[in-house]
């Protein structure tokens, strides 16, 4: 490629760039160097091809939706005429975009089409031929794929970069923008990868985990803080510092072989500014534009406030998360289709079991309904739960399948949500004294509002995650309270999720977030402490407590499939029951410092027929179900016996 050609492309890049002037000023020198730097030319040799890429990168015959939209990217490709000859595939038309380096090709793939190489011909100044692969589907025939997640699961959330380094050879990938691995920096890459997770499948199974949720594994080729995964730069590629696409497919298969499901973390709302779709945008309206950089106000109430100002609603939904995260315009039907196809592609390609949807509340409302319907129409067993970091149960239920009417054109079809409201409640129960609605009583009122959901049992409950202060720190490193929290997590309604390291008392506060995203001790060769294999003291006690309860839960349907009944907390003690034909488990939580004597007669409707019980975590007998002396700061999980 000649220097003049490179500069022409560079000019096109800047003309279509959505970066702020300051960010463009940072990029200009790099583009100038591109014209003369032989090393960079070699590294980008693939860009000399007339067609740089087509998204989706391949597709399948036999999909329920026969329509396929190809986004073709290549220098000047937009003026091409397209033709094809393939039995069962029809060319419905092409659509040039504002940027001449893009062309949309619309296809219909009939049920009669067979797998093979679809020959596409692009006629412009030159004729370019491209062989596009159509594959045979495997997910409908394989029961180990797309299993979904249910109340029987126990999800383990981890950050791949911070969990374990299984392959040091992929720590530093030549040509990627982030600096080398630096474990002493909270914003740098630390080197964890897919192999590191797989190497510890045995640890997770011992803990009682049934599903793994890594934060996003897709490419984040950003120069700073690319470790967290939420500023993706390529919708169709696994980040090479974690492994290859093939490695990820193998990872999912290996997890399934070990009896572990995989939750794939996805971002619908935005993408990293270093991605090719931002650097050489198909059109200005692929991303939300502002005269100057405008951050979201992060006020989800603007989504459904009947009195909201147009400006506040626009800023919430169309403001950017950060200068490095371009906000996608999902009201553009072409963007909507691109995103829908991508998330169908990942399911079919890997056989993953569930999607956790990041920043769900910020996306265009019609798009959310279209996206959810399209994905679930194709994969009705796929698990899906959304991040709904909002205030108030009614607001959280609004973003899930609920009993509410359609509001302003929006009726959510998201099966479940991350239950921030119950997380607020358990934190308050363990840090504040009981009041009429405060302290442990907040747990009662939070679950009382479950009538708003179509099925609150599908909600994912948690104590902490990668965005909030760690649970053990929040409760003042009080081990008695820790056990109360874990007892609640593994016995309440919903699907429990544990954040990596909580089981071994990892601690710290956000602000900065990196403090709660530290490396798991033992995940790197040479670590002074290895909590995967050598736990002592309270770290061992904590792990054993979680493992005991999680594995008990796994084998006792009353806890994961039973009904839930609770009683209004009295004198700081909250009592609830999980029950089914398979058995009954009673949970009693004493939030007081002191022992409480509990008259059990008020629980007669659930205790009727039972004469005794066994506390699950200790094996201690509970011989008297008429009066119980419950120690302070204690949760009992009691299997009732007749």
UniProtKB/TrEMBL annotation:
Q: Which organism is it from?
A: Hymenobacter duratus
Record keywords, A-Z: Glycosidase, Hydrolase, Signal
Q: Which GO terms describe its molecular function?
A: hydrolase activity
The chain positions of domain Glycosyl hydrolase family 13 catalytic read: 157-553
Q: Tell me which Pfam families the record gives.
A: Alpha-amylase, Cyc-maltodext_C, Cyc-maltodext_N
SMART domains hit by this protein: Aamy
Signal sequence span is 1-25
Its protein name is Glycoside hydrolase family 13 protein
InterPro entries under this entry? Cyc-maltodext_N (IPR015171), Cyclo-malto-dextrinase_C (IPR019492), GH (IPR017853), GH13_cat_dom (IPR006047), Glyco_hydro_b (IPR013780), Ig-like_fold (IPR013783), Ig_E-set (IPR014756)
């Amino acid at each position: 490629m000649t220097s003049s050609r490179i500069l022409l492309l560079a000019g096109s890049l800047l003309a279509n760039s959505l970066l702020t002037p300051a960010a463009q000023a940072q990029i200009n020198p790099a583009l100038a160097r591109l014209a003369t730097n032989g090393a960079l030319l070699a590294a980008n040799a693939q860009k000399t091809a007339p067609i740089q890429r087509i998204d989706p990168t391949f597709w399948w015959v036999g999909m329920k939706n026969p329509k396929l939209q190809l986004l073709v990217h290549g220098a000047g490709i937009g003026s091409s005429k397209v033709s094809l000859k393939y039995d069962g595939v029809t060319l419905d038309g092409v659509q040039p975009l504002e940027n001449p380096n893009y062309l949309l090709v619309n296809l219909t793939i009939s049920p009669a089409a067979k797998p093979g190489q679809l020959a596409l011909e692009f006629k412009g100044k030159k004729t370019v031929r491209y062989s596009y692969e159509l594959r045979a589907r495997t997910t409908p025939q394989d029961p180990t794929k797309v299993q979904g997640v249910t109340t029987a699961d126990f999800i383990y959330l981890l950050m791949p970069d911070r969990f374990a380094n299984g392959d040091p050879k992929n720590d530093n990938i030549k040509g990627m923008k982030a600096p080398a691995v630096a474990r002493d920096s909270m914003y740098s890459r630390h080197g964890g990868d897919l192999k590191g997770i797989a190497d510890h499948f045995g640890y997770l199974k011992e803990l009682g985990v049934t599903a793994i949720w890594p934060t996003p594994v897709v490419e984040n080729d950003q120069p700073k803080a690319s470790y967290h995964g939420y500023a993706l730069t390529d919708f169709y590629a696994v980040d090479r510092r974690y492994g290859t696409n093939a490695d990820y497919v193998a990872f999912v298969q290996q997890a399934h072989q070990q009896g572990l499901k995989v939750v794939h973390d996805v971002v619908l709302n935005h993408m990293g500014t270093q991605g090719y779709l931002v650097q050489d945008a198909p059109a200005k309206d692929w991303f939300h534009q502002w005269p100057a950089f405008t951050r979201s106000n992060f006020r989800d109430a603007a989504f459904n406030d009947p009195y909201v100002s147009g400006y506040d609603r626009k800023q919430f939904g169309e403001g950017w998360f950060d200068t490095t995260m371009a906000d996608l315009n999902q009201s553009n039907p072409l963007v909507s289709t691109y995103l829908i196809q991508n998330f169908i592609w990942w399911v079919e390609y890997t056989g993953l079991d569930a999607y956790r949807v990041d920043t769900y509340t910020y996306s265009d409302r019609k798009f959310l309904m279209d996206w959810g319907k399209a994905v679930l129409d194709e994969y009705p067993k796929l698990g899906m739960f959304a991040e709904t970091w909002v205030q108030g149960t009614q607001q959280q239920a609004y973003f899930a399948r609920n009993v509410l009417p359609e509001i302003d054109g929006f009726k959510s079809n998201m099966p479940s949500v991350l239950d921030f409201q119950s997380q607020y409640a358990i934190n308050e129960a363990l840090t504040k004294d009981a009041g009429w609605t405060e302290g442990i009583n907040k747990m009662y009122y939070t679950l009382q509002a479950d009538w708003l959901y179509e099925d609150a049992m599908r909600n994912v409950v948690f104590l902490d995650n990668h965005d909030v202060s760690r649970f053990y720190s929040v409760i003042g490193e009080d081990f008695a309270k820790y056990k109360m929290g874990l007892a609640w997590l593994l016995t309440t309604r919903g699907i429990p999720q544990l954040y990596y390291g909580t089981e071994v008392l990892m601690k710290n506060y956000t602000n900065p977030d990196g403090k709660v995203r530290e490396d798991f001790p033992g995940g790197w060769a040479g670590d002074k402490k290895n909590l995967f294999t050598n736990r002592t003291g309270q770290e061992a006690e904590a792990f054993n407590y979680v493992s005991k309860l999680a594995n008990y839960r796994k084998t006792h349907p009353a806890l994961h499939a039973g009904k839930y009944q609770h009683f209004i907390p009295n004198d700081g003690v909250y009592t609830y029951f999980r029950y089914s034909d398979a058995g009954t488990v009673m949970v009693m939580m004493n939030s007081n410092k002191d022992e409480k004597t509990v008259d059990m007669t008020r629980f007669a409707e659930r205790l009727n027929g039972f004469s005794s019980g066994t506390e699950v975590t200790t094996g201690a007998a509970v011989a008297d179900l008429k009066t119980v002396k419950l120690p302070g700061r204690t949760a009992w999980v009691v299997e009732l016996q007749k």
